[in-house]
Amino acid sequence: RAYVFGEDVKFGGVFRCTSGLADAFGTHRVFNTPLCEQGLVGFGIGLAAMGNRAIAEIQFADYIFPAFDQATAKFRYRSGNAFNCGGLTVRSPYGAVGHGGHYHSQSPEAFFCHVPGLKVVIPRNPSQAKGLLLASIRDPNPVIFFEPKWLYRLSVDEVPEGDYMLPLSNAEVIREGTDITLVAWGAQLAVMQQACAEAEKEGISCELIDLRTLIPWDKELVEASVNKTGKLIVSHEAPVTGGFGAEIAATIAERCFLRLEAPIARVCGLDTPFPLVFEPFYMPTANKVSTA
Q: Domain total for the chain?
């Protein structure tokens, strides 16, 4: 019941994520589509509504926002639970890649977090990607699965060969600490780990959390951490204004108001188009996080 389709996926895709699948499962289940993001998402909606598992791979996540907002996420709601397309998972590369410029380096996750009925998942490394992707495919809700382009070639990990799933909407504490809580997702976790190491040299104990799922996100785990440390920094590549970090900051300010010892800080991208030659100035680097 599972089908994989999208732009160039038949020969392995731009990032070679589907190499060998067409040979293993046939071109009737692994096939290319035209370069039309909304078209292939529309096809996935129909395929999923028929009870199949549809895994669509796109290049520009920004282009599919109307299709998700108007159809995918609201299909079950508008039909009174008579129909759904919960079998649809959309895989999309996102984020900085070092040479992507103002289109290919964007981080549009906040757009999709504003769509009720849709889950948004972002892994930080290969083993997380496998477990979270299998969970996304089998989840009864439509999911958009963002894959950080920076990690396709740089992240190396031991990945179990067997079938396993990691729970969606469960954040993970990947470094325990007592002085300050840091929250991030995707490729930004590597940046945050560098900042934590630098802070440790100055005697600052950092607790680092990988959110993993942005919608619905694990408020309870972040709340418990901030209640322990009294301080919070949220970091993401997307522009700071309207970014998902603002949602986290507002929620934690409400839940932990009497425990906070300092204003919540956001270390994010700038409110500009993503630059090419000025990418080092735009990105939320380890130095910027350390300073915060």
A: 2
